[in-house]
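Might I ask for a little of your time on a matter of protein folding? Here, with my thanks, is the record as I have it:
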Amino acid sequence: MKYLHPAELGYQVRSKLGDIGFAMRLLLRLISLLGPTLRRARLLADQIHFLGNHSLAIITVSGLFVGFVLGLQGYYILQRYGSSEALGLMVALSLVRELGPVVAALLFAGRAGTSLTAGIGLMKAGEQLTAMEMMAVDPVRRVLAPRFWGGVIAMPLLAAVFSAVGILGGYLVGVVMIGVDAGSFWSQMQNGVDVWKDVGNGLLKSVVFGVTVTFIALLQGYECQPTPEGVSRATTRTVVMASLAVLGLDFVLTAMMFSL
């Protein structure tokens, strides 16, 4: 085990605290730039299209197969207790509460988060951000803020698409393939899913995950070493940190929302 001199340990602790402080200041700055970003609607729309529309294919396909698996496994489990008519409720609650926001956020981190980190990192390596500063253009306002709010807006939309397609997949497996009564499938879902407690909490989760994943991706790109190796390492850190943050926040949010 390597021994750290107290001075070296203190330096490392101070450096980490400085990094945390910089990250918090950057996050607050990005949040405060909501108004100026909305006034530049074209930039924001381009980022929503880039982050959301380009991630739609993997979100749709993944949601469909997750719905297939939920419908199949849920039927086998519920059939043991004579409750196969509750399959629609189980599929809907599983997707709206948990799997929709979480799996969509993980896919968003892998597809859009890495793209954001690589894009910002390459701009830094090419000294484009430095050139903006030399021309009195704030790179945080011009480059980071539209991407941040584009990700925050796109993430809940992608999670909603994931949940909707997943429910359709559960219907195809449970009703069309297995033969569960369609009326029971939809009526149990309609009666058991609460708009505010279930859908609203799932929406809140997806917003929090959107802020977390997008901010981590932008921070890693903005702070990476301006070299090809630095950009590649930052991209890897984005996936790892964003995935762990989503899973950790999911536990915290679930404990706060559904246990009170």
Q: What stands out?
A: The mean pLDDT is 89. DSSP finds ten helices and no strands in the chain. The radius of gyration is 22 Å.
